[in-house]
Each structure stands twice: as structure tokens, then as C-alpha cells.
Amino acid sequence: MNGTDTGFVLISAALVMVMTPGLALFYGGMVRSKSVLNMLMMSFISLGVVSVLWVLYGHSLAFSGDSGGFIGNLDMIGLKGVSADSVVDSFVTDAGGKAHQISTFAFSLFQMLFAVITAALISGGLADRVKFGSWMVFIGLWVTVVYFPVAHWVWGGGWLAQLDPAVIDFAGGTAVHINAGVAGLAAVLVVGKRVGFKKDPMRPHNLPLVLLGTALLWFGWFGFNAGSELGVDGTTANMAINTQVATAAAMLGWLAYERIRHGAFTTLGACSGAVAGLVAITPSGGNVNVFGALLIGVVAGVVCSWAVSLKYKLGYDDSLDVVGVHLVGGVLGTLMVGFLAIDGAGGWKQFVSQAIGAFSVMGYTFVVTFILAFVIQKTIGFRAAEDDEVTGLDQTAHAETAYDFSGTAGSHLSAAAPAPAGTAATSKKVDA
Questions:
Q1: Is residue 113 in some structural domain?
Q2: Residues 291, 247: Cα–Cα separation, whole Å
Q3: Which residues span the domain enclosing 127?
Q4: pLDDT band at 82 (very low <50, low <70, confident <90, very high)
Q5: Could you tell me which of 196, 198, 180 has the C-alpha nearest to residue 188?
Q6: Which residue, among 187, 172, 112, has the nearest Cα to 142 in the 3D structure?
Q7: Is residue 351 part of a domain?
Q8: Domain annotation covers residue 432
Q9: Is 305 in contact with 274 (CB distance < 8 Å)?
Q10: pLDDT in tens, 152-205
Q11: CA pair distance 360, 334, nearest whole angstrom
Q12: What's residue 405's pLDDT?
């Protein structure tokens, strides 16, 4: 076991874990105040549901054996056979070309947290209008029938890894972002639009919260991207710097497009642009140089900024732009690396493999997610009651509110405090 590489993967796993509460804050600030806690919980609960399913059977289905290139087997159910001394090969090799080995537990934890945030990403499309219990059922079933198989296709030795040339997906353009983005679209089409969509104002209620969430996502994404090398070498560093410059370029690209189209540089645009850049560089950053990363970032910022407006033209209510940012950004990054890959890896043949990877995941995930959401809607019900949605899901689903203003209606004057100027002095405590 290589201690340095194992330690790096464990640190990267911790950074990826921070991304889920970061996503919760990013999404939470974008919704209206009456449903902010519900939005936070829709992301946060994924840490509970998906982590448990991962160790029970998810790791085994994604990374144990291979059944026809589609899925693994149950030989490692409950992480059977894994001990403190168990190791797996990383992508890092020594001077003789021998792969470094890292702890299987570290690898499993890292991949578990990828599954967690992928499921959480879908929640942005469904903000304000689904039953929380049904959401937990949905993400549990979704990772089982969608994420675990797709992760196997890409990273577990499945059919996309067996193509010639194999699909390049360094850290999750297909398995994470395209997967979550198209799943969000399918679920939205089943659940329907929010009450008042395109009629009532639905502006973000707390942009500082969005900015904080973006910063945590950006910070954690270094573990997400660079950590996917599963060790420390030059490719790790290349992915790290590409993550930074692509994100920066995408933020500037989004703001430039926004200024030209709408006349302002908005905080929400800066945050959304940064996330679009992070998404687009995820599949490609380990295989392009810094100029390729800049190009991918700029294109993602501009195109994703344009794409978020499609929901108003096409009539689907993707509440927090999961389709416009994650699906579109994931497709851009996955396809562009086909031509921008360094060391002679790029070209038409690689581009064809990238397109096969992107569109096969889109097709499979859309169909299976649509069926899954439809079955939940027709059985236990997916959509919240209209009255609950209008009141706000914080109160109806969680019996809480994010902001308690009940103590601001009056003042508290103690006997020791001087009376305010212009009022009669009193020694009696006045309670609001």
C-alpha cells in the first residue's frame, strides 16, 4: 500500500464530502425563503441514504466483476472480503510502469461520495414541490438502477471503458453531470411545473448563501477532480490547475454574455458561471493543457448561460438550472476533450467515443429516470400537495422555518438600562 497516495485520496474524499453541504447552500440560497430548509435537506439527506446503500451493495455493483459490460456483481456485498490491508491499483505508476496501490477502503469512500453528490444534484430541478419522503425513496432507487450501472460503464470496466479508444471521463462528466442533469429533466417532466411558474416572482432569497455555497463547491472540487487520479503525480497537478483556470474563465464568459444580453454583472451569474466551468472541466481536465482548459471554460460559461433560458422557451420548470448547467456543461466538456486531448489522444476517433459515451448515458438515464419518477408519482405520490407548496415545504414537511422573526416585533428594556431618549423613564421590564 502506498501511504502517500492513500492519504491523498482520503483527503480528497473529505473535500468531496464538503461539496454536498456546499451544494445545499448553493441551491438553498436560490430558492424562496419558505422552502430553503427543504432544499438544504434534499441535498443533505443524500449523505445518509446513498452512503448506506453504497456499502451494502453499491460498491459491489459498480466495481466488482463485470456482467456483459453493463454492471458488476454482488461478490463484494457489504464490502465483503475487504480488510485494512486490501488494496486497489491507482492511476499513478512508478518509473517501471507499475501501478501504485491504495487502500480499498479509501477508494470506496472516495467513490461513495461521488454517488452522494450525483444524487443530490438532481434536487435542484425539483425545488419547492416534491414530498420529502418520496424524494428519499427516489434517490435510493435512482442510484441503484442508474448511478451504479453507469459508474460501472465508465470506471468499473464496463462497456464504455472497453471502447477503442475508451471514453475519456477523468472525474465524472458522463457518470455525474450528464447523468444528474438528464435525470433532473426526466423527473421535472413527470412532476410538472411549480405553482406560479412564469407568473410569480421566484428570485433567489439569499445571494450571500449562494456565493458561500459556490465557494465551498469550488474548494471541494479540487478533491473531486485532482483526487480522481487516485494518487499524486504530474497528472494530479495538471488537473488541479486546469480546474482553477477553467472555472475562472467560465465565470468571466458567463458574466460577459450576461452583460451583453441583460446589461448587468450579477452575483448569481458569477456563481452559476463558476459551477458551469467546474462541470465542463470535470471529464476533461486531466487530458488537456491549460489553454484547452481556458477554451473549455469560456465556451461552457457562454453556452450554459444561454442554455438556462431554454426552460422558459420550451416550458419545462428546471427550478435551479440543473439541465442548463450540469447537462449542457457535462456534454460540452465530454465532447470537447475529444479534440483537445493532449499526447496524441485527440481526434475524430476519440470524439466519436466521447459522443457515444455522452449520448448513451443521456438515453439510458432519461428513460429509466422517467419510468422511476412516474411509478413513484402513481404509487406513493411524488408531487407535494398544492396547498403545501404554496405554504412552503419548510413548515409542511419539516415543521421548521429558516428565519424566525418572532422576536423582532418589540424591544426588551431592563431596569438597569437607561430609557431611550424621548420616552418616559421606567424601571419595569417590558417584554415583547
A1: yes
A2: 13
A3: 3-394
A4: very high
A5: 180
A6: 187
A7: yes
A8: no
A9: no
A10: 999 999 999 999 999 999 999 999 999 999 999 999 999 999 998 888 888 999
A11: 12
A12: 74
Contacts of 358 (CB under 8 A, 6+ apart): 173, 174, 178, 330, 331, 334, 335
What is the domain count for the chain?
A: 1
Average pLDDT, stretch 8-16?
Answer: 98
Taking CA 373 as the corner, what is the angle to CA 372 and CA 374, rounded to the nearest 5 degrees? 90
- Residues 284-312 pLDDT 10s: 999 999 999 999 999 999 999 999 989 98
Q: Specify if 255 maps to a domain.
A: yes
Dmax over CA atoms of the chain, in Å, equals: 88
What are the grid coordinates assigned to 421, written together?
Answer: 431618549
Residue range 359-392, pLDDT digits in tens = 999 999 999 999 999 999 999 999 999 999 999 9
Q: What would the grid cell of residue 319 be?
A: 427550478
Place of cell 459522443: 355
Measure the CA–CA gap between 201 and 31, rounded to whole angstroms.
Answer: 11
**Grid coordinates representing 34?**
419558505
Other CB atoms within 10 Å distance of the CB of residue 17: 20
How far the first Cα of the chain sits from its last, in Å, is 64
- Three-state SS for the chain is CCHHHHHHHHHHHHHHHHHHHHHHHHHHHHCCHHHHHHHHHHHHHHHHHHHHHHHHHHHHHHHCCCECCCECCCCCHHHCCCCCCCEEEEEEECCCCCEEEEEHHHHHHHHHHHHHHHHHHHHHHHCCCECHHHHHHHHHHHHHHHHHHHHHHHHCCCCCCCCCCCCCCCCCHHHHHHHHHHHHHHHHHHHCCCCCCCCCCCCCCCHHHHHHHHHHHHHHHHHHHHHHHCCCCHHHHHHHHHHHHHHHHHHHHHHHHHHHHHCCCCHHHHHHHHHHHHHHHCCCCCCCCHHHHHHHHHHHHHHHHHHCCHHHHHCCCCCCCHHHHHHHHHHHHHHHHHHHCCCCCCCHHHHHHHHHHHHHHHHHHHHHHHHHHHHHHHCCCCECCHHHHHHCHHHHHHCCCCCCCHHHCCCCECCCCCCCCCCCCCCCCECC
CATH number at residue 214: 1.10.3430.10
Cα–Cα dist 65/59, whole Å: 11
